[in-house]
Design a protein that fits this description.
86 residues; mainly alpha; globular
Length: 86
């Protein structure tokens, strides 16, 4: 369970698993806004105040804000679902 004021883990997973090519412009914009809002909330919430599950969720989703690609994004891109195609 995610902490209060944070994007739910099921919402994050659902968004990450659906290929960007199958999302509408509105859906992509919504994902972008939700992701940025959750990232900002992660930045302003000290790790000492996060639940264990929230800390794990932040690690998996890359919300450490150190400009590294998240594990979810790496998997998504490797499977061809992400916007970054190498």
């Amino acid at each position: 369970m995610s902490d209060t004021g944070r994007q739910s883990f099921t919402d994050k997973a659902g968004s990450a698993l659906k290929p960007d090519s199958q999302k509408s412009t509105v859906e992509q914009a919504g994902d972008f806004v939700k992701g940025k809002s959750d990232s900002a909330a992660s930045t302003f919430q000290p790790n000492s105040q996060k639940s264990t599950t929230q800390q794990a969720g932040d690690t998996l989703s890359g919300n450490k804000n150190d400009n590294q690609e998240s594990l979810l994004d790496k998997t998504k891109n490797a499977m061809g679902f992400g916007g970054n195609r190498s």
